[in-house]
Amino acid sequence: MTAGHHLIIITGANRGFGASVAHTYLESSEVDTLSYVLVGRNQAGLQTVLDTLKQTGASTNATVKGLVVANVDLADTDKLDANLARIQEAAKQLRDESLQSKNVITKSILVNNAGSLGDLSKTVKEFTWQETRKYLDFNVVSFVGLCSTFLKDTLAAFPKAQYPEHKTVVIGVSSLLAVQPFSNWGHYAAGKAARDRFLGVIALEEKGNNVKTLNYAPGPLDNEMQADVRATLGDKEQLEIYDGMHKAGSLVKMDDSSKKLVLLLKKDEFDSGAHVDFYDV
Ligand SMILES: NC(=O)c1ccc[n+]([C@@H]2O[C@H](COP(=O)([O-])OP(=O)(O)OC[C@H]3O[C@@H](n4cnc5c(N)ncnc54)[C@H](OP(=O)(O)O)[C@@H]3O)[C@@H](O)[C@H]2O)c1
């Protein structure tokens, strides 16, 4: 661990892959100070994750700071502006503290992890535009809002001329579906593909500002979302594959996958805007 300070904002950090990334980032940390902004709907779950991070920090001599931004329903666009402001306000508070303590943040990371499956029982001809809009509001519109506000505020706080060492990273937790279509995944595939391409655009637009983006597909994880896939997927052929993986114990463990993501970030050799799959590295 070397001297340094990372700010990491994670959506859907209360459980699943988001919580795993939060813990792994600390356990494999290259720097001695981490400031977390944990975002989601579930106050108690987010607080438990933050408390555990602080305990881990205390036992590993890392300084862990953090704030929970709860009751954030990313599907609710009526409250999106207010919620994005709350998230960036929390990040600002941690940034200001870092400036006052002279342990200035050296890297700011946004992990766009929260996501939903959509209704996997349906094929596209059964979709209504209303459910499509609802799906995209959460998985694309709020994602764009998160990226935009994060970039705007972070780059304003750390202008390159004044903070040439500061790095900004935007992660999209992606999926094989972003690059390959499968039946019954219409909404999910469209959402993930849009997110991937969006981060590709940011990579180009901000390459002069020490900004990198990464679309990381974590593999088929052994968790609640996969259980939902097995319970709802309408396509028999794929269902057999997922059932088979579950029974054979070959679904990917969340911590194994989050470790690969954290290592990618640590090495910092990935091409900005790239799509990297768990099985590729
Ligand atoms: N599981 C897999 O096999 C797999 C494979 C490839 C990619 N991924 C991607 O990995 C990411 C994490 O998924 P996961 O596997 O950890 O799924 P998960 O266990 O279902 O967790 C989803 C997370 O998103 C949050 N969330 C759901 N709806 C939300 C909303 N309206 N507003 C705010 N937060 C909301 C959940 O919070 P609540 O507790 O409040 O519901 C939870 O923290 C997703 O982007 C997913 O697409 C997963």
From TrEMBL:
<dbReference type="InterPro" id="IPR002347">
    <property type="entry name" value="SDR_fam"/>
</dbReference>
<keyword id="KW-0560">Oxidoreductase</keyword>
<protein>
    <recommendedName>
        <fullName>Sepiapterin reductase</fullName>
    </recommendedName>
</protein>
<dbReference type="InterPro" id="IPR051721">
    <property type="entry name" value="Biopterin_syn/organic_redct"/>
</dbReference>
<dbReference type="Pfam" id="PF00106">
    <property type="entry name" value="adh_short"/>
</dbReference>
<dbReference type="InterPro" id="IPR036291">
    <property type="entry name" value="NAD(P)-bd_dom_sf"/>
</dbReference>
<keyword id="KW-0521">NADP</keyword>
<keyword id="KW-0963">Cytoplasm</keyword>
